[in-house]
Amino acid sequence: MKLPVFLLVPGMRLARPVYGQKGQMLLNRGVELTTSYIKGLKEHRVLAVVVEGIIDLDGAAAEVLEESVLAEALESVQAWVDTNRKQEEFARICEYVGSIVNEILAGKVPLGGLAEISAADIYTFAHSIDVCALSIYMGVHYGYQKDSLLILGMGSILHDLGKTRVSPEILNKPGRLTAEELGEVRNHPLWGYEMLISDASVQMSDSALEIVLSHHERYDGSGYPRGLRGEEISDMVGICALSDVYNALTVERVYRKAFPSNEAYEMIMTFGDVKVRYDLVKLFSKCVYPYPVETLVLLRTGQVGIVAANNRHLPLRPVVTVIETGEIIDLNEELTIVIDRALTPEEARAAYLRFAHRYSM
Questions:
Q1: Contact between 98 and 151 (Cβ < 8 Å)
Q2: Is the pLDDT score of 360 beyond 90?
């Protein structure tokens, strides 16, 4: 259960590690939060964490992509940007992209991401790792072979490299950007591309470089930096663009709250042949669920439930466990019951405080 840090209470237990401003682990999974720990999270500018849910869903995370692989990839990208050992560190990035590809080919699924459990200061790096993992996962479902997945992964993991040249004050500005500030942000694809082609340590294919340069191009020509449209935009660029938008929407930011997964999913469903090619949007809908496992939802019956499993062919009809009674409802079979909406973080916290003790005995 993901909660903003300001809603945490002592006694909650972390379900996933939390990472600090340099990618270091601040607190490991399983740690019980105290007043001191919560204060420390705020001081480290961590915006949200994932805590253990009300009900332990046995086996729900058995096939989830190893978080340690993603954390090591994050550290390697940071090190490559910051160090003089460029060739050595770039080789490490390639190695970790390969590890992510191998994990996903072995059946692992990217669930959540680093950006939602890391300090705001490393958002660009953590977000890039998450986009890489989701892009590779989509690429597998698109039918790419391993060589193509490695190209897609390299372009995706470095897609926002140019943001390291954008002022942090602009990237984290709470209010509306000025025209000048917006122009600086919109330069980041070109800056990232230029940084890569001018670095002797970098060996990337033209297709991977194209992802970096064009991930903000849009099917209808409304994107940047070149205003490409339609078939001028490659499949790999479109896949990275969808992963980029989805991860950005669902992560807590300094200047706005995270969108619930179902709302971000619905937004992307409107992109077909407008922002991204229709068949890629359809691909996205087969890889991402509007109500991921462990999402707390309000049923139209008034009951609060937790998503225990997803139905691949009916993503809006998952299997839900009713928290108050423990009843398991497969919405694929109980057609008269529907999800009204996902709970807000405030409502999720209230549900935790009300019901968690029932399942901890």
A1: no
A2: no
Neighbours of 318 (CB within 10 A): 25
Q: What is the pLDDT of residues 88-116, one digit of tens each?
A: 889 999 999 999 999 999 999 997 778 88
For residue 178, give both structure tokens.
């000025």
Give the CA-trace dihedral at 347, 353, 355, 361, to 10 degrees. Answer: 150
Can you name the CATH fold of 63-287? Hypothetical protein af1432 (1.10.3210)
Sign for the CA dihedral angle at 92, 95, 100, 103 comes to negative
Listed in order, the ranges of the chain carrying CATH 1.10.3210.10 are 63-287
**In the structure encoding, which two tokens stand for residue 142, read together?**
């698109």
The SS3 assignment for 163 reads helix
- Mean pLDDT for the chain? 91
Q: How many C-beta atoms surround the C-beta of residue 224 within 10 A? A: 17
**Which are the contacts of 89, defined by CB distance < 8 A and separation ≥ 6?**
76, 79, 80, 83, 201
Q: How far apart are CA 348 and CA 304, in angstroms?
A: 9
Collapsed DSSP state (helix, strand, coil) of residue 324: coil
Residues 132 and 211: beta-carbon distance below 8 Å: no
Burial of 58 (0-12, 13-18, 19+ CB in 10 A): exposed
70 closest CA partner among 181, 165, 156, 185: 156
Closest alpha carbon to 97 in 187, 183, 204 = 204
Give residue 361's pLDDT: 43
**50: helix, strand or coil:** strand
Q: CA-CA distance, 113 to 183, in Å (whole number)?
A: 28
Highest-pLDDT range among 49-53, 158-162, 350-354: 158-162
Burial class (CB in 10 A: 0-12, 13-18, 19+), 357: exposed
Q: Buried b / exposed e across 330-350, counting CB within 10 Å, b at 16+?
A: ebeeeeebebeebbebeebbe
Q: Which residues pair with 322 in a beta bridge?
A: 305
